[in-house]
Specification:
Subcellular location: Membrane
Number of domains: 1
CATH architecture: Up-down Bundle
Oligomer: single chain
Largest sheet: none
Helix content: over 70%
GO molecular function: metal ion binding; oxidoreductase activity
Strand content: under 5%
Membrane topology: Multi-pass membrane protein
CATH topology: Four Helix Bundle (Hemerythrin (Met), subunit A)
Main location: membrane
Number of helices: 8
InterPro entries: CYB561/CYBRD1-like, Cyt_b561/ferric_Rdtase_TM
């Protein structure tokens, strides 16, 4: 009996040691997996940034070379600010804003929320300026161009309303300290879903805007596929690819920022 007891006593540390080794190995494997996932995300993110900068430069060069450039007098030069500013705000900055939680995942959730709101504020400020240039150029045209008659303008209104609704509801729900945690957790999935939908709609609206502007610009020559039309068609395809890549990153669970103990709101959504 004593012999059996001694054997049992000797075996117990071995089992415990095996468990410790197994746990350490599992933890190491998880760490390596997380590092690989972050590395994969960063690679895609760098490509995304290059595409975003390419889009902005392409729109700028198109307007500068083919559409007489920019200015604050003259219908065309004022109107040219509209596609450039809207590309910067509702495409590039919007994409970076909704990816901000993943790009800077090591920051605290509170800091990320404040930065997220700050980027959205910049989008609103420069977006309003972009909208004003579009509307004002129509008013000063001779003869004046009717407002809000195209599908592009209708979708633009819907996009702006959805964006502002997201911004206001986000400020109240996630930055106002008096809101109960259970309410924040209930709102989070809808905030994420509508954020993705708003971004997707902004991409569609932008593509329609490019198409509308090039048709008006080259008029009957568009059917012969002039250089300007070919160039802008390519920009539109790149823009769609850019939007699809952003959505892919958002809905891929492996790229999601891991929750931390001091985050407050836990969620299983895609956008953060």
């Amino acid at each position: 009996t004593v012999e059996l007891e001694n054997d049992s006593i000797q075996e117990t540390p071995t089992l415990n040691n095996n468990n410790c080794v197994s746990n350490k190995q599992n933890g190491h494997n998880i760490k390596l997996k997380n590092e690989d996932q972050i590395s994969g995300y960063l690679s895609i993110y760098k490509i995304l940034q290059l595409i975003g900068i390419f889009l902005i430069l392409s729109v700028f060069l198109w307007l500068q070379i083919y559409r007489t450039g920019f200015g604050f007098s003259g219908t065309i030069k004022i109107c040219n600010w509209h596609p450039l500013l809207m590309t910067i705000t509702f495409v590039y900055l919007f994409a970076n804003s909704i990816l901000h939680f993943r790009n800077f995942r090591s920051n605290t959730k509170r800091k990320l929320k404040m930065q997220h709101a700050a980027i959205h504020s910049c989008i609103i400020i420069f977006g309003v300026l972009g909208i004003w240039t579009g509307l004002n150029s129509n008013l000063i045209a001779n003869p004046p161009i009717p407002q809000f008659y195209s599908l592009h303008s209708w979708l633009g209104i819907i996009t702006v309303i959805m964006f502002l609704s997201q911004f206001i509801s986000g400020l109240i729900s996630f930055l106002y300290p008096e809101i109960a945690m259970k309410y924040k957790e209930a709102v989070m999935p809808y905030h994420i879903i509508f954020g993705i939908l708003t971004f997707a709609l902004s991409i569609v609206t932008s593509v329609l805007g490019f198409s509308e502007k090039i048709i008006f610009a080259v008029n009957q020559q568009h059917g012969h596929l002039p250089t300007e039309g070919l160039f802008l068609n390519c920009v539109g395809i790149v823009l769609i690819f850019y939007g699809a890549l952003v959505v892919y990153i958002l809905i891929k669970p492996e790229y999601k920022r891991s929750s931390k103990p001091d985050d407050g709101v836990t969620h299983n959504g895609a956008a953060h």
